[in-house]
Amino acid sequence: WHSMLVDDRMWDKVAPAFAQSRYLLRISGPGHLGGPPAPRGSSLGDCVSLALATLDAAGVDSPVDWVGSGWGGHVGILLAAAHPDRVRSLAVFDTPLTPLAVPERMMMIALQSSLRIVGATRPIRRTIAAGMLADQSRKQRTATAYLDDCLLRADRSSLARMIGAVSIRRADLTPLSADEIRAARRIVDHRRRRGR
User: How confident is the model over 115-138, as pLDDT tens digits?
Assistant: First the structure.
């Protein structure tokens, strides 16, 4: 699962390497290119449900190796905690576990409102690029063109809703420690061995 404000094309460069040794299933989040629209009141829990439905629809019934960036990391953490029998391993990056601090939350509320009202205008896209891309990446036309394309193709109402669910209203995920997820996994493994 990809990061917020981009789509599953973020995996294009690494997908061939993953696909050499794994069945690869890329999931596009609600409101992003290829993903379903985000209904009002969407939550990270809804994203976990979408992930499970996508796995089921693809016929994936064995535990997966989940790779998530940002938003996809949040979905993976919650999926592993709620359904440890569905996640064999979990790799997340750029995935903050704590809620946004007040200044960051205020910035995200402003971004959410701007995207909802006027869409991904050039000044808004430049502001997002400045926050998401390192200086070197911003100088590469391919990185900024990709980000622009993602923002212009996304459904702006859905995008605004997902910013609320993933960034503004995100709960503290630090209680879901790696030890707790491993403990849940051991319980599932034990039940499997006993035939339950």
Answer: 999 999 999 999 999 988 888 888
91 forms beta bridges with 67
What DSSP string describes 121-154? -HHHHHHHHHHHS-HHHHHSHHHHHHHHHHHHHS
CB within 8 Å of 48: residues ≥ 6 apart: 75, 78, 79, 82, 83
100, amino acid identity: L
Sequence length of the chain is 196
What are the pLDDT digits (tens) for 6-61?
A: 998 999 999 999 899 888 999 988 988 867 888 888 899 999 999 999 999 999 99
Sign of CA dihedral 185, 167, 42, 54: negative
d(CA 123, CA 180): 43
Residue in the block written with tokens 């050499």:
20
SS3 assignment, position 86: helix
pTM, full prediction:
0.86
